[in-house]
């Protein structure tokens, strides 16, 4: 298939591109390189462009005879989204509409969308299921939920079929490729702890240890980025073979606390470093764990690297090797 991957130079996108290429798909990666790294794109065609440019989107789809879209391009910092809501509504929602309009114009009928656990907000029950209430507590989560609603509408009106993948905490790195997680600024727990193990940071701060969890720190569901990427491949191929639109959670169904992550990093890296408990971070739910039963059942998705040790050790290999010049 000829597949357009938006945001394909980013952390998750680069792993998606790699897996699509491995399966023999023709990939066109579009990225504005604001957060992505050109060297993370391991093959196919690369176009540096922004989703704001609808005319260009039309041209790209037409020229490359695009048959499906995997849409990952987005701003994804929860904190920033509360300070600059307009940026998130514009880039994650409005520019996404440009993409859908270009799909309508070029009769591209299938899209896989990179959504997020942040659409749920504070969960009523754990593990979280796809039909649980969606009341995002951040503009980021809301911008992604708005786009999911738009997808539903474009399906009703134009018959564009979608798969929305609600990611929990993506982590780890491809065990073979020279790609991994490198955000600037970095806000995610696992890369921050690994940077601390490397001595790039003085110490790690635990954002609150007074939650009602087993050790007081927040619990999250970490999923290996290659397992996440594999789900995109299954989803796009399922749509191509006529599957209906669907929404799926993507997590391991296992939760690990911040303290457990830090302990595992210390064990794997053999490094000791200072840990300090600081204030809670605004908007952090105590526990987020996914039920991924639906995608396991319907798309036969199975995580290959569900263990925290494996997730952290693949990330460590990549960080140790220097990442993208840390
Ligand atoms: N966290 C922390 N210290 C840090 C970074 C994150 O204690 O330096 C905590 C954060 O409060 C959350 C968990 O680690 O409970 C995972 O945070 P991350 O930003 O990686 O992902 P999120 O769950 O917010 O998407």
From TrEMBL:
Q: Which reaction does it catalyse?
A: UDP-alpha-D-glucose = UDP-alpha-D-galactose
Q: Set out the biological process GO terms recorded for this chain's protein.
A: galactose catabolic process via UDP-galactose, Leloir pathway
Q: Which UniProt keywords apply?
A: Carbohydrate metabolism, Galactose metabolism, Isomerase, NAD
Q: Which GO terms describe its molecular function?
A: UDP-glucose 4-epimerase activity
Question: What cofactor does this protein call for?
Answer: NAD(+)
Do you know which CDD domains this protein is assigned to? UDP_G4E_1_SDR_e
Which EC class heads this enzyme's classification?
Answer: isomerase
Name the source's superkingdom. Answer: Bacteria
UniProt-listed PANTHER family: UDP-ARABINOSE 4-EPIMERASE 1 (PTHR43725:SF53), UDP-GLUCOSE 4-EPIMERASE (PTHR43725)
Query: What is said about its interaction partners and assembly?
Result: Homodimer.
Question: What is this protein identified as?
Answer: UDP-glucose 4-epimerase
Natural source organism: Halanaerobium congolense
């Amino acid at each position: 298939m000829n597949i357009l991957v938006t945001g394909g130079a980013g952390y998750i996108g680069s792993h998606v591109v790699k897996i699509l290429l491995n399966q023999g798909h023709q990939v066109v990666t579009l990225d504005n390189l604001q957060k992505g790294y050109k060297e993370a794109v391991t093959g196919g065609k690369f176009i540096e462009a922004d989703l704001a440019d609808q005319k260009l989107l039309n041209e790209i789809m037409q020229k490359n005879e695009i048959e499906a879209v995997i849409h990952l391009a987005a701003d994804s910092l929860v904190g920033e989204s509360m300070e600059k809501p307009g940026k998130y509504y514009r880039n994650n929602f409005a520019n996404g509409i440009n993409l859908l309009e270009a799909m309508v114009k070029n009769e591209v009928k299938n899209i896989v969308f990179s959504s997020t656990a942040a659409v749920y907000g504070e969960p009523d029950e754990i593990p979280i299921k796809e039909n649980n209430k969606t009341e995002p507590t951040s503009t980021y989560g809301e911008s992604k939920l708005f786009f999911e609603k738009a997808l539903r509408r474009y399906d009703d009106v134009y018959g564009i079929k979608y798969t929305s993948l609600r990611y929990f905490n993506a982590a780890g790195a491809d065990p073979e490729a020279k790609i991994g997680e490198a955000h600037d600024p970095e806000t995610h727990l696992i890369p921050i702890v690994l940077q601390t193990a490397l001595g790039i940071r003085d110490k790690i701060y635990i954002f609150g240890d007074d939650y009602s969890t087993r050790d007081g720190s927040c619990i999250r569901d970490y999923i290996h980025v290659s397992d996440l990427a594999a789900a995109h491949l299954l989803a796009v191929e399922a749509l191509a073979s006529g599957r209906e639109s669907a929404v799926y959670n993507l997590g391991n169904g296992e939760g690990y606390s911040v303290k457990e992550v830090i302990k595992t990093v210390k064990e794997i890296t053999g490094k000791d470093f200072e840990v300090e408990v600081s204030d809670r971070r605004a908007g952090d739910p105590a526990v987020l764990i996914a039920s991924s039963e639906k995608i396991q059942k319907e798309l036969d998705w199975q995580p290959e690297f569900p263990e925290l040790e494996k997730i952290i050790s693949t990330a460590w290999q990549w960080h140790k090797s220097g990442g993208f010049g840390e």
